[in-house]
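[job 4417] fold queue: 2 targets
>>> target A
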Amino acid sequence: MSDSDFAAISSYAPILLMVLLFYLLLYRPQKKQQKKQQDMLARLQKGTKVVTRGGIMGVVDSVRENTVMIEVSKGVVIEVAKPMIGTDYVTKEELEHEQQEAVAKYNAEKEAEESK
């Protein structure tokens, strides 16, 4: 390899490095976030607690093709476009209850194994 070949390759190195950094820092994380959002929207069902991108919190009443009906207060149901659903969430009390149930189930299975 001659000096001129090396100089030509090294002149492209900053551009290649910038493309690599762009991919690693911007494109890849954005794609992961979009995939996560699409998965969450696909899992929506009646009873799921959600927060819209506008900050409205409620419980999913029904899911349609392009919209979601959200009950924001007893008897108050609003229609929201699916892409405007920000996140689904679980309250702290529900999470603690699920953890207690999992521990109880584990302990019951352990006792059943020990009694055999």
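>>> target B
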Amino acid sequence: MSFTDEKSLVHDWAEDGPNRYAGAPGVMLDDETLRDGLQSPSVTDPELEDKVGILNLMNSLGIETADVGLPGAGRRQREAVERLCREIVDNDLRIRPNCAGRTLLVDIQPMAEVSQKVGIGIEACVFIGSSPIRQYAEAWDIEHILRHTREAIRFAVREGLDVMYVTEDTVRSSPDHLRVLLEGAVEAGAKRVCLCDTVGAAIPAGVKNLTAWVKNLLQDLGADEVGIDWHGHSDRGLGLANTLAAIEAGATRVHGTALGIGERVGNTPMEQILVNLKLLGLRDDDLTHLPDYVEAVSRAVEVPVAVNTPIVGADAFRTATGVHSAAVIKAKRKGDDWLADRVYSGVPASWIGRTQEIEVGHMSGASNVIHYLKTRDLPHSQDVIDAVLTLAKKSAKVLDEDEILSVVKKATR
């Protein structure tokens, strides 16, 4: 069997039929790790210099904007926002800052002061709850929300800030109320609107319906230039799926955090967004610093990376299963790195500076052992292979390097 091109080796059902994925190329990314991510009840607020390092790694990944904090929350937050903004200016970083704040002047004023002091534009991400359940709990009515919306956006615009208007719990808000609020926000000068799955309640079908509805509303208002953001949480395990659905329906910027840290079970993981958008051909970022980004955040916020974490977990490109390993090994023997990186992997390990790893365990075959020994320039006579495989079959876990070296040493005496 021969193939003329790489595409002929992999059939993509997402390209077939009426449900063909049609997300728009060039979708932008907003990193919420240093703001919404730090609202997780289990994380440690990083030291300031750790935040600076993380910001630089975001920049290296091509991420367009980062929420650098909520300066209205107190002195510690304000100092961090100012330091991060200075880092962008002093080092001519491409990434741009934004800040979160309630639709209150006391939250927006510190953003304007930092912007003027440092000499950089800051996007004001002003938020207020919009769903009926939130209105009932807060004893708000739509007139109250609309008044705060208009006052906050007009104030921010007068202060020279671009505004993203954030309706919290958008996915559970009524179209009648959203129409009133979004129209008021656009009239007041908002340049972007953010649709939020604040409690992770949505499914992809609902996200598509909501995003398409907002896109049509903006067109009806003659506000096609107003951008649409998507901000999702993972309470139902649908963070990434919902983010891709939003992009397909017209969102032009989506939000995420490293390792998905955030309120309750967290936000959409940024590392998953980056890789999937590259796989879909919607972005073409250099992802070689992705492990560094995740490791820096993991260390700074004191959240360990689980071994089975997609893309960045220790086991993401690791196998000890005989059938799987044999296929990878055969591909390597063909001298085809592209093939070896994909024959048993939906994500190319090489994109993030890793390789497909063949281990030896109780489900391994002789090919695993031979590959392991040869790639480490270890003796690989039949006696050695048999001895390693015998130990592996008795073991309840994958053999570590010391165990294998011990067997090799005994078998070659």
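[job 4417] complete. Note on B: The domain at 25-301 is CATH 3.20.20.70 (TIM Barrel).
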